[in-house]
Design a protein that fits this description.
There is one protein chain. Helices cover about 20% and strands about 20% of the residues. It has about 100 residues and is α+β, with helices and mostly antiparallel strands. The protein has a five-stranded mixed beta sheet, covered by helices on one side. The longest helix is centred in the middle third of the chain and has 11 residues, at about 35-45. This is MoaD/ThiS family protein. InterPro entries: Beta-grasp_dom_sf (IPR012675).
């Protein structure tokens, strides 16, 4: 079970409180690891109202000002096909999705 922490406005949109827990249908055994892309596919499949809020619907790229963190690391600029850290895949640590702020 993978744990995902959403920002408050996306929790409201998805009608959830607390963490979201997802089972990610990973690739076929031996075909590869669980990735950001697979996790976000599972999240958007379970909560279709989030389509287009975290990543662009056409390009699949992370939206500006949306950041991904896990295991005290910024994963925002990692490839969407990079493996997620093992503590996230095993449910020990959550993937945190944040709406970054800009301005000054």
């Amino acid at each position: 079970m993978i744990r995902v922490v959403l920002p408050a406005h996306l929790k409201t949109l998805a009608h959830v409180t607390g963490e979201v827990r997802l089972t990610v249908d990973g690739p076929v055994e031996g075909a590869g690891p669980v990735t950001q892309r697979l996790l976000l596919d599972a999240l958007e499949s379970r909560y279709p109202m989030l389509l287009g809020t975290i990543r662009d619907r056409r390009s699949g790229k992370r939206r500006p000002f949306v950041r991904f963190y896990a295991c005290e690391e910024d994963l925002s600029n990692e490839s969407p096909d990079a493996p997620l850290p093992e503590p996230v895949v095993s449910g020990v640590e959550p993937l945190i999705i944040l709406g970054a702020m800009a301005g000054g």
